[in-house]
Every structure is written in structure tokens, then in C-alpha cells.
Amino acid sequence: MNVENFRLHGHELIDWIADYYENIEELPVKPNVEPYEVFNNLKQKPPKNGESFNVIFNDFNHKILPGITHWQHPKFLAYFPANASFPSILAELLTSALGAQCMSWITSPAATELEELVMNWLRDMTGLPKEFSGVIEDTASTSALCSILTAREKISDYKINESGFGNNIYRIYCSEEAHSSIEKAMKIAGIGRENLVKIKTNDEFSMLTEDLEHKILSDIQSGYKPLCVVATLGTTSSTAVDPIEDIGKICKKYGIWFHVDAAYAGTAMLLDEMRHHLKGIDYVDTYVFNPHKWMFTNFDCSAYFVRDKEALIKTFDILPEYLKTDLDTKVNNYRDWGIQLGRRFRALKLWFVIRHYGTDGLKEKVKQHINYASIMKDYLDKDPDFEIMAPMLFNLICFRYNPQNLIEEEIDLVNKELLDTINATGKAFLTHTKLKGKFALRFVASNTNLEERHIHEAWRLIQSCKQ
Ligand code: PLP
Fold first, then answer.
1. The total number of structural domains that make up the chain
2. Distance CA 263, CA 146 (A)
3. Which atom of ligand 1 is found nearest the CA of 144?
4. Residue 387 lies in a domain
5. Ligand 1 site residues, Cβ closer than 6 angstroms
6. Fewer CB in 10 Å around end: N or C, the chain?
7. What's the pLDDT tens digit per position in 39-96?
8. Nearest one of 453, 456, 455 to 445, comparing CA atoms
9. Model pLDDT for residues 215-238, shown as the tens digit of each residue
10. Distance between CA atoms of residues 361 and 356, nearest Å
11. Would you say residue 262 lies in a domain?
């Protein structure tokens, strides 16, 4: 493709993107396709000769797009969102145009220094301690793995990296509501899934610290080495918050690494009125939140903060001859702050987003989302046929349909059917979870383009789909 063709098709694509967003509400949020329908509809062999852009783009429109779930549809109310926004999309365009690989300072000084700057901004904007240093990882899963590996190394005096585990069996603790990425990190870090100790939660799905201390003590007595506690600030099922201060005191008492997973709800810390959830943050070693979830920054962008950056770097650094430069002691080489060597220029989109909205604009949007969720909560509160299943701390509400005529055994099934009926309309997309064994629908009000009218429409849809 020559530069003139690139210019032509580039303009076409920007128009396409603008039209897509203008008309997105006409598309079904979740596509109505069967497994392998898309696959079988595509040419099964790569073309021998190159094809024109128009042919490829036509296939995109007719064969790919019908199989896409529209995450940026305002009534994508499922999982947690992966919010995009126009400034972020434009920055991603520039990032791909530059095609820079930002593993070291020298491989793109501006990318490294912008990363340091925006991470300082984010740290201060969300009320985190000044001692934290930040780095952008791809996901919260990777960030949790980095924490567990750093804890593993620091607590073993960096011996496991050198010579393996020896006879030590390490233990990591999280609540029964923690995200599955912690379990995955246990597998990858070689600690073993069975050494992840799940701590009970209270009626609000928040970690019971008495149970935590009890399990730590009994593990020590049995010869295990407690390594790390992972607390969640905003669990995936219901956005419950673990008591950071109480957990922090226990970690300090027993010399245990403390990681906080605020992947989703961390964005709410932009608001002063939410900062009480951070009480005890001074005990925390590492903290992660994902601007790619609720802060309007295209996937992927995970803001990872670490108190002792030397421990992180000592865990991950490698210095083969071909990467050495004269400046290595003076600059950040982010390849040594995590797992991957090659790194995308993710700081640019974050910088665009923060500058576009401004800190007040971001706060305003987050407040709006919390307000929209309260509108749905009011509807649910006022309808005796619906039951709210967990406290609403941010902008996720868990509920179920529970009219008087149903017995407990029927309720799960009826709610599964309600969810399927709602999603089959294509007019909204919700997902579910189980809370203390009970099936619950999750309604997440945090899409970039969500407006109040969408909440009213969603409520009318729920009403029309119930039996
Ligand atoms: N932690 C929590 C609390 C989450 O809700 C999620 C995903 O929803 C994750 C971690 C994993 O996030 P990522 O996809 O960035 O790895």
C-alpha cells in the first residue's frame, strides 16, 4: 500500500469509525452466531497474491463484524467494561503509526519518560502514596503475577530465581471472592494452586481477617511459609472491598507481602468520597488498577504500582550484552519491571485521555456512572419481585428476580432464563455470577457512552423479559 492509498483508506476508516459510534445502538450488543459460523464463512487458505484493501474491508464488514460483541455499545452492561474513548482511539492510531517497541529508555526515550509521568499523575489522582513507583503492564493478571514473583524472590532472598524452590512450600492468601487471575499466577509462579488459601468472607463478601490470621498461624505451625496476601478492592462478582488496613496489619506482623487488586474499582479512587476504601494503603507493597476497564483508555493498560521498585527490578532484570547502554543506571528500562521484554507505547493513550477529560472531567464521568447505577438500584428496591444480592459500593448492582410464588430451587433457573431472554433480544448484554451459591445477575453501569436514558430502557427491558 503506498502512502496515497494509505491516506485514502485511512480517511475512509475514520469515517467508518465515526459512523460506527453514531449508529452503534442499532447493532445487537451480542452477536447471534453459532460456534464456528464465522470461521466457516471465511476463506480457509491464505491468498497467494495480495488482495485489495476494498476486498479485505468488505469481508471485515460482512464476515467479521456480524460476529463481534459490541463492547462499546452503551448497553454493554456485562462483566466489567473495556472502555474505549475517542481520544484514546486516536492515540492508539498514533501508537501504531510510530510502531515503537519501548523495552528500554534508548528504544524510545519519550515513551519511557511519558510512562513515568502519567503513572505519577495516576498515582496522585487516585490518592496513592508518593512512595509508589508505577509501570504500565498489559493486564491486572500480569500485575498480580509480578507481585507474587517479587514476593517470592524478596522473601526467599532472591534464591528461587537462582536455584529453584528447595524444600520450602509457600502459601498465598486471598478471599474466596478474589479473581481467578490469582489462582493462575499460583500455577505460573510454580507455587502450586493448592497453596492458594481461600479466606472466608462475611455477608458483604469482604475478607474475614480473623480467618486470615487463623489460617496463617496454622500454616506456620505446619511448616509452610506465608508469602503474600492478595486483597481485592472491588471484587469481580459484586465489587466487595476487603479491609485493607486490618489485612495490612497482619501482613506487617508476619512479614508477608501485601498486594491489592483494584483492577476495576481503582478508578473510583479518583473521587475523594471513595478514598476511605484506601485506608491502610501504607501497608501495601503493590497495587494495581486498570484504566482499560473503567477509565476510558483502550485495552490494554494496567496501572501497576510498587513500593519497593528495587525488589521488582531485582526479580525481573536481565542484562545481555546486546541490551547494555551507557545510560542504564540513569534511566528507567521498563523491560526490567515485568515479564515481557518488548513493550507497547501504552502511556500515550493514557496521556491523551487524562488531558482530554482533565481530572475534573474524569471525576464527573465516574460520578455519573455511580449515579446511573443508583437509578437502577432504585428501580430494583421499589419492585418487590426483585432482590438486591450484595451491597452496591460503586456502580455494579447484583440482583435476582424473586417473586413470591417461586421456591428457592426454582429461582436460579428462572434467573438464568431471564438473563438468556434479555441477552437474546440483542438490546442489552448482562452477565451473571453466584453469590453464596445463589445465581445473581450483574448490572454494570460504566460504559463510556452510557446515558441515563439507557438505564430506563434497560429496566423496561428487564421487566418485559421476566416471566
Ligand atoms: N482482578 C479483578 C478484580 C478483576 O475483576 C479482573 C477482571 O475482570 C482481573 C483482576 C483481571 O483483569 P485483566 O483482564 O486485566 O487481567
1. 1
2. 14
3. 10
4. no
5. 80, 139-141, 179, 181, 232, 234-236, 261, 263-264, 290, 302
6. C
7. 999 999 999 999 999 999 999 999 999 999 999 999 999 999 999 999 999 999 999 9
8. 455
9. 999 999 999 999 999 999 999 999
10. 8
11. yes
